């Protein structure tokens, strides 16, 4: 057998540089790396998918891959109620095909929810982007509404990013937000699902600037860089009101100082009681 290598039959001009073949990154890490590079090149206001629950913040677009048409969670400020709006109705140009599912972006302000997070907490609050700013809440019966101007335990949600990149929202009752079909075929939100299935999975898009902000904060945290406290909700609440059903939340050092002060106060009271008793014994 001949040991000569088979030569390529492709024509090649003199002086032409050969191109190196790139290996295809078919694994999940390679795809994520390419997506991150594309997002780095995008504008700060571009809508992107979060990779970590801490990145879910700021203006957000929440939609569900329903059939036959995907729907998004919308707030109707006129009727003061949540609407699951069909995205296929939003055609910017007549005759143009609808974009692919993951290329969807909000087309009006009512489709945007502003997500805030107390520093150091795993829970988030979802506030409407229109009207007076109402918070998405869920009661113990699974009824979901957006008619409260103040936030409490029922307005807290824990986002869970699933392996496929979709997001599930868990409430304080450890139940999940879901799309449910009511009487007459009307779709509505419920908050009483025990498990995560198709109805409990949502796509969430955030703005690129907030994703970068969260990524930078995580890098600083891992590097051990601790920044000074900012004027966030946690510090403001600590300054102006008590937490935890009227109890003030303090550090361990503060607790020890309070205990020591109480102990010294009790000793002082004991000494005063003894002196008063000695005086009364003298006059008896």
TrEMBL record:
GO cellular component: catalytic step 2 spliceosome; nucleolus
Region (Disordered), start-end ranges: 1-54
Localization of this protein: Nucleus, Nucleolus
Swiss-Prot/TrEMBL keywords: Nucleus
Listed InterPro entries: Actin-crosslinking (IPR008999), FRG1 (IPR010414)
CDD domains named in the record: beta-trefoil_FSCN_fungal_FRG1-like
GO MF term (any one): actin filament binding
Biased composition (Basic residues): 8-24
Family affiliation: Belongs to the FRG1 family.
UniProt-recorded name of the protein: Actin-crosslinking protein
């Amino acid at each position: 057998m001949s040991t000569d290598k088979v030569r390529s039959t492709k024509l090649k001009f003199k002086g032409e540089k050969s191109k190196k073949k790139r290996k295809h990154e078919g694994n999940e890490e390679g795809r994520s790396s390419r997506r991150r590079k594309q997002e780095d090149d995008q504008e700060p206001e571009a809508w992107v998918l979060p990779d970590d629950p801490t990145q879910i913040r700021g203006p957000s677009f929440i939609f569900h891959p329903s059939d036959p048409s995907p729907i998004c969670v919308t707030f109707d400020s006129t009727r003061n109620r949540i609407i699951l709006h069909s995205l296929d109705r939003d055609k910017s140009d007549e005759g143009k095909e609808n974009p692919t599912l993951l290329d969807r972006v909000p087309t009006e302000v009512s489709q945007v929810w502003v997500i805030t997070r107390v520093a150091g907490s795993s829970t988030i609050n979802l506030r409407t982007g229109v009207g007076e700013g109402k918070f998405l809440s869920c009661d113990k019966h699974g009824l979901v509404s957006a008619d409260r101007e103040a936030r409490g335990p029922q307005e807290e949600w824990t986002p869970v990013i699933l392996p496929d990149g979709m997001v599930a929202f868990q409430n304080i009752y450890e139940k999940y937000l879901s799309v449910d079909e009511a009487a007459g075929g009307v779709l509505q939100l419920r908050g009483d699902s025990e498990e995560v299935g198709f109805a409990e999975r949502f796509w969430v898009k955030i703005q690129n600037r907030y994703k970068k902000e969260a990524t930078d904060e995580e890098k600083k945290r891992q590097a051990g860089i601790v920044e000074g406290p900012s004027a966030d909700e946690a510090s403001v609440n600590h300054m102006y009101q008590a937490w935890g059903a009227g109890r003030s939340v303090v550090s361990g050092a503060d607790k020890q100082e309070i205990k020591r002060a109480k102990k010294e106060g009790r000793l002082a009271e004991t000494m005063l009681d003894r002196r008063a008793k000695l005086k009364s014994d003298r006059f008896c």
